[in-house]
Amino acid sequence: MMDTFDYNEAFSRNIGWVSEMEQQVLRTKKIAIAGMGGVGGINFLTSVRLGIGSFHITDFDEFELANFNRQIGATVSSIHHMKADVLIAMAKDINPNLNIQSFPNGVNPDNVNQFLDGVDLFFDCIDLFCIEARRLVYSECWKRKIPVIFSVPLGMGFGQVIFLPGKMSMEQYFNFDKDNSELNSIKLLLGVSPKGAHTSYLMDKSRVNLEKKKGPSTIMGCQFCAGAAVTEALKILLNRGTVYAAPYSHQYDGYRNKYFRVYMPYGNRNPIQKLRIFLAKKMFINKGNQEYPYPNLNFNNPIENILNLARWSPSAHNSQKWEFSEINDKSCKLSILSTDISGPSNQTIKINFLHAGLMLETLRLASSYFKHDFSWTFVPNEVEGDNTLHFNLNFKENLSITPDPLSQFIKIRFTDRRPYQLKKINPKVLEALKQSISINHGIVFKETFKDKWRFSLLDARAQKTMMLHPKLIHFFSEKSLSKNDFPSQGIPLGSFNISFISRLLSRYIQKKPKLFHTFMVSFKGYLLPLLKVSIISNMFSGAQFSIVRLNNAHSEQSGVGDINSMYLNFIEDGQMVQRFWLTCAQHGISICPSYFAILLSRSDTQEYYAKDFEKHTRLLKKIGISFNNIHGSLADNIIFSGRIGYPKNYEVKSRSLRLLLTHLIKKT
C-alpha cells in the first residue's frame, strides 16, 4: 500500500495539455454533481483524474442489476450498495486527498444552498425525467452565476447544452410546461438534440416509454458524455477556449460519425423546434408503448416459468395449436391440437408431429434455462378420429445444468419476411448451421442467382395456390393476417414486404371473402404481392436452404413411450428445425420458411387439393415439377426449406407474439 500520495506525480501526465499552473488551479476547484448513475459516475471519476480537488455529490439510489450496462460503479460487489458511497470509494482510490461532501438524501429546497455553496461548476446528471429537481438546482445556479453543463447519452453518442451566467437560461431555452411532465421530457430531449442524429438506428422504439419513464442506453453514450462535459468544464474553469453556450446545442453520434453544433434562437420557442415538439408529442405521448416480448411474467411454480418460455415455440401461421394441463411442481401434460392446414390425413398427422417436435425441443431448452432436466412420454390417443397428440412432461431440478446457449434465443427468434442483404453467409456460420442438427439430417444451401430464381418461382406458385384455392384461402382471413404489428395470434400484415397502401387494401378486402376472391381471380390481385413477397424477397437473400432427412433412423430418446418409429422421426424433424432456427438467430441470421412449397409438392396433397377443384391441377403439377427439379433425388426427404440472410436492419417493426400462458392452460 502507498504510504504517501503525491498529487503532482499522480497527475503529471496531464501537464503539456494543461500547464503546471493550470493543474494547480484545477486542484482548487469544486464541482457539484447531481446523480451518480450512468453519466454522473463517469463525469465524477473523469473529473477526479483531471485533478479537480473538491466535490459536492448527491444520489439516493442503490446499484441494481439493470445498471450494469452503463454505470461505472455497478459491479457484482457493489449491488445494493449506495451509489454515492461506491463512487466516493472509487474516487478516493484515485486521489485519497479529495475533499468530498455527499448529500445522501438528494437535493431539495432545504439543502440546495448548501449543495451549491462554494461551487465553481455544476454537472447536471439528474435523471432525465426529474424535471422539477432540475429546475430547482438550475434556478439557484442562475442566481449564484454558476455555469451548468448538461450532457445526455443519446444512443451511441451524446447531446449537450451549456448554460453560462449572463447567457440564455435553462428556463428560457427549454421553455418547460407547468404541469405536463411527459411533454417536458420531450422538450428536454429535443432541446439537447434538435437534429436527432441518434434516432435513425434505434432498433426497438417500444423501449422508449415516457409513461414509465424508461429508455434505452449504452455505455458508449455515457463515456462520450464524460469526455465532452469534462472538456468543456476544463475550458470554463481555466477561462480558455471558446465555449458555445445556449442557445447552442452540441450532438456527436459515434455510430454515424457525425457532429452537429446547432444554433437555435429562442430555444424550444423556435418555430421549427415547436413543430418538432408537436410531432414528437403525437409519436410518444399516451401511446403506452409495450415492450415486446412482454409482459415478462414470473411464476412461483418453476414449471410454469418453463412453460411460459416454451410458449414461444414456432407454429404454422402462429396458430399455437397446443395446450397444457395438470400442472404441478414436477410434471404436466401437453396436448398438440390438430393443425388448421387441411390435407390428406398422413400429411396433417406429419404436421402435427412436426409441431410436437418443435414444442418438445423448445421445452427441453427452456428447462435447461431454468436448470431442470426434461423428459417426455408419448400417450396414445384412444379417441378414434381425434388427431390430438398427448404427451406427459416430466421436470426435475438440476442446479448443475449449464443452460443451453440456444435457450437465450427462444423469445428473440422470429420469422423475418423482409428482403435481406445480398451478402453471402459466412462459411463458418454455414458450418455451424450444419452442425446444429443430428447425423440423421443434412442441410443443402443454394446461393447462386439461378438457384434463388428457381426458389422464387416455386414459392410464388405455392403462394398463388394459397391465395386462390378455397381450402387455403382462410390463411388470408383477419384471424390469420392481423392488422396489429405485434399480434398475439396470427401473422402481422406489417411483417410482409408490401407497401402501406397494399396493407390498407388487404385489411379492407380480407373482411369480405367474395370481394377477396373476385379481386384475386378477376383482377389478378395476386400479382403484386407475389412479386414483392415471393420474387423480390427470395432474390434478396443470402442463401436458400433445405433440411433433408438422410435416413429413417432416429436419435436415441429414452422414455418416449409407445410410439411408432415413423412418428418419432417426425418429432425429431421438428426438434432439428427448431435447433437450426435458433442457431440462425444465435449468429444474427434471419430466416423465412417456405413450408407450403414442400406440402403442395407431394403427390397425395396435389390429389387432395385438385379433387373438386380441377382448375388448380395445372398449377399444382408445376409446383411438383419445380420442386423435384430443384431438389432432385432428395425431394421426397425434404422436411423444411426457406431462405436465410443477414437482415438489412435489425429493427423489429412487426412480429408475431404469443398468447399468454393462462390462455394455453386447459380449463378443467
Automatic annotation (TrEMBL):
Could you tell me the superkingdom of the organism this chain comes from? Answer: Bacteria
Q: Which Pfam families match?
A: ThiF
- The segment(s) forming the THIF-type NAD/FAD binding fold domain are 12-262
**GO aspect biological process, one term:** cyclic threonylcarbamoyladenosine biosynthetic process
**MF GO annotations:** oxidoreductase activity; tRNA threonylcarbamoyladenosine dehydratase; ubiquitin-like modifier activating enzyme activity
NCBIfam families with a match to the protein in the record: PRK08223.1
What protein name applies here? Answer: THIF-type NAD/FAD binding fold domain-containing protein
Q: Which organism is it from?
A: Legionella qingyii
Write the lineage as a comma-separated list. Answer: Bacteria, Pseudomonadati, Pseudomonadota, Gammaproteobacteria, Legionellales
